[in-house]
Design goal:
It holds the Pfam family Mur_ligase_C. Its EC number is 6.3.2.10. Keywords: ATP-binding, Cell cycle, Cell division, Cell shape, Cell wall biogenesis/degradation, Cytoplasm, Ligase, Nucleotide-binding, Peptidoglycan synthesis. There is one protein chain. The chain is an alpha/beta fold and about 475 residues long. The protein is built from 16 helices and 23 strands. The strands form four sheets. It has a nine-stranded mixed β-sheet, with helices on both faces.
Amino acid sequence: MALWTSTEAVKATGGTSAVGWSAEGVSIDTRALRPGDLFVALKDVRDGHDFVAQALEKGAAAALVSRIPDGVAPDAPLLVVPDVLQGLEALGRAARARTGARVIGVTGSVGKTSTKEMLRATLTGQGRVHAAEASYNNHWGVPLTLARMPADTDFAVIEIGMNHPGEIAPLARMADLDVAVITTVAPAHLFSFDSLDGIAVEKASILDGLRKGGTAVLPEGLPVSHILLAKAAANNVPAVTFAAQGADWHIASAQWGEEASAVQAATPKGPRLFRVQSPGRHFAVNALAVLAVAEALGLDPALSAQGLGRWVPPAGRGQRERIVTDLIDDTGFDLIDDAFNANPASMAASLDVLSILNPKDNIGRIQKGRRIAILGDMLELGETELALHAAIAEHPAMASLAIVHCVGPRMKALHDALPKARRGEWVETAAELLPRVASLVDAGDVVLVKGSKGIKVSLLVDALRKLGRARPQETEGAE
């Protein structure tokens, strides 16, 4: 069944189409376009209209445009609208309106994408699930995700982010949510907000997108939790809390392993056991929110816990893998790829994970295995950014690290704050460290690479992988 026909798309957008067509998908990038997609000619760094001819040549079913591009015939399959982004938004709203899916919106300073993916795993097997690809959570990512949603979807998971005040509420209203989740509120994007309270107010505005009878799943125990709860009360929205002791959902006991965490949660309906196939308390706390969502949707608790147990972190967000450098002895080092995003809260969580992983002694040129961190700048933190970087030196997990290498002008503040015994290299750009990557690690080490996407420490992840053969870390019970 077609995702969109020309008749449906014209009705949704109010546009015009000279010919009939049907599309099986929606794409904004000719590099990822598949035959049968509707190509959306958004204007970003480049004007998407410049690529319409190429998209049609590659097999696009049609193109959403605001004008007939050069080199494209007037009778080509074009959906012409006054504004392309507004046309995409109209498709998103129409896709939401035509489906009976229950839609979950996820926002938060940290953990949006991993929580979205946990929800995808948890809901799979209990209905047809549609979720955003990558981190499509902004003004075009949310309508694109909605426009891609098949009419027979049972559950949709929409990630909603922000950089500036006033962004979240319109996207949440567009998604018309049944459940809204706020993972946490932490210092991030402070360049656009006066305080943590301001960030909390913006995050809480996701509740403006809840349908009547919807549910809010909110973190308890934060300095700004009262702001979130007050917003729920003002909107007359029932709130389920998680995280801190005393919340509706909290960790009663847990076994924290190198490969996984086994948790017994206290819930309003009694104890609940679950397993997260990754180390780290922060992942277990996010899992509480996920199971609370499943409960709010009335889903089977056993199936939900089983689905959650199949989740593993995606690349760039805490994924752990073994880099085998000696094929004969099958020895190497462990790499934690967390190079997609960073702020003080996620940095602390990643360091906590590194601190519980055990290096291996007597298998490398350096007798004792080490915990090593390669940390890149945390961006968009505003006027206090240098103090926030320097404060990482005081995190308790730092005491378990052998050495810390720093990348970026802001990370110079951390480098200066580190004790000399733990102070590794400092470079302004990741590229400067590339020629020396091989000398930074040894067999038996556990290496964390963490930083904001813009500082490009992912280059170092790629270079570390090339030192050997990457192999996903084996996890007991994984499927």
